[in-house]
Amino acid sequence: MEYTHDHSRNLLASLEHKGWVLLENQTENDLIELIAILGNTILVTNVLVNPQGKAMVTSANGLGLHTDHHNAKYILWYCIEQTDKGGETILMDAEVIFNQLASNYQADLHKINLFEHKIFPDDKEFHPLVSTLDNGNRVFYYSFWLVNRNERENEALLSFQSFIHSSLPIKFKLKIKDILIIDNHRMLHGRTAIEGSTNRFLKRYWIQSHKSLNNT
To answer: Which pLDDT score is estimated for 216?
Structure first.
């Protein structure tokens, strides 16, 4: 389909409202248009099972809920092939989890720094789990494997993790030609184990929004 101005506005409004959008049966031309609406691509990854690979994204194991690099405002996945068993996408709204915490725990989460997911040349050693922008919006950066050893027993972090584990995630399985877009500053994402065929192939795009570029 051709994404008109109204389509673009509705897409961005949906992302702002609920943090994710699923679009079914999209062509490669649709994919190009959608990326142009969202912003600039900063990294493209082929998400494939590689038994010899060390990266978690290439494993057939399930992936716990997390965010990706904070430079990516949006993550877009385009499904090219799908496994016949397992491989469901799981999503959870970190803002909803945060709002359930006691106010002192909310304040403490802003003080916790996680190891940086080092990808880009200017990446620092650490990045805050929660930061607040000038407009009041919060940015979440969370991966359980990047937590500092000395923070693992932090009560605020344990409470945050407890709510994640006890909350019901959004769960679905992408079909071929489906596109999933999430707000990576808000939505935690993961995947169930790939238990069937290992020819599952998603193309993943990290996208920096036009708004982010204008603010730098």
So the answer is: 38
